Every structure is written in C-alpha cells, then in structure tokens.
Amino acid sequence: QAVVDFERLSEHAAAFRGHDVGFCCLGTTRAKAGADGFVRVDRDYVAQAAELARAGGCKHFVLQSSQGANQRSPFLYLRVKGEVENLVQAVGFDRCTILRPAVLLCKRQESRPAEWMAQQFLGVVARVFPTAYSVPVETVARAMVATVLQPSKGKVEVLENGDIHKLGKA
Fold first, then answer.
1. pTM of structure
2. What is the pLDDT of residue 13?
C-alpha cells in the first residue's frame, strides 16, 4: 500500500510503476468537496492517476464510473463522469474497462441522510427488480476482478449495471 498526496500526484509516480492492471474507484461528493473539489477529485485526479499508471506500464485500467455518465449531461455529476471516461480512454491502455453502476448499496461511516433513505427504498425495490436501480458494492468489486480474469472483448468495454450484476455473480 502506498499513501500518496493527490495534490502532488506526479511526485508519487513510483507508486504507479510495475502494475499490469489498475483499479480506480476514486470519488467524492459535491456536498463534501464543493463543485470545484468534486471536479478535481472525480475527473482530474482520476485522469492523472490513469496517465501515471500507463506510463508505469499498466496494460489494463478498470474504472468505476456511474450509470448515466455522459460528457454532455446538464448535471455536473454525470457530465464529470462522462468526461473522465473519455480522458481515461484517451490515455491509450491496451484494455480499458469502465463500470457504470447504479446506486451503490453500502454502509458508510459518514452520515448521508438522503442517500440512506434512497438505499432503504432501493433495497426494497431490489427485491423485485434486482438489477435495475442499485448494486451492492461487493458485487461491483467482484465484477471488477472478474473482468480482469476474462478474455478481452475489445480495447474498451463498458459494463452497465445489469452487466455488473451478472459478472459480479459469476
């Protein structure tokens, strides 16, 4: 494990060397970091980490993004996720896998009342429509690992929420 200062990420290039596969789940919230901070973490830090990983020899980069990611979205969150997807693809990995999970079902240390309410509601909905609106974080993690173990389906592969559920259970 290497602890890095994301404000000085280029000074930590050695931490990104010698890895065949890179996994990125980095992100924050607008509420926690403000709009500028959100863009810096979710787009800029991720893109820079991808560049350092590629320069360090990484062949396959696996990025957790978001359902609905679109660089043309009027919504900041979805627009930034779409922008970072494009930036990571442009780095030129031999293989790039992008996962677009729906609402992540997990227990957090910090309090997010609106998210907690959504998770409670979606937990009930998930019993009827298990792959439609949410996904447990454990399923996303299993899908991220499984995609590395499977043969490539092309230079760039985008896995939507239903795909994540299937792969995460394989």
1. 0.88
2. 97
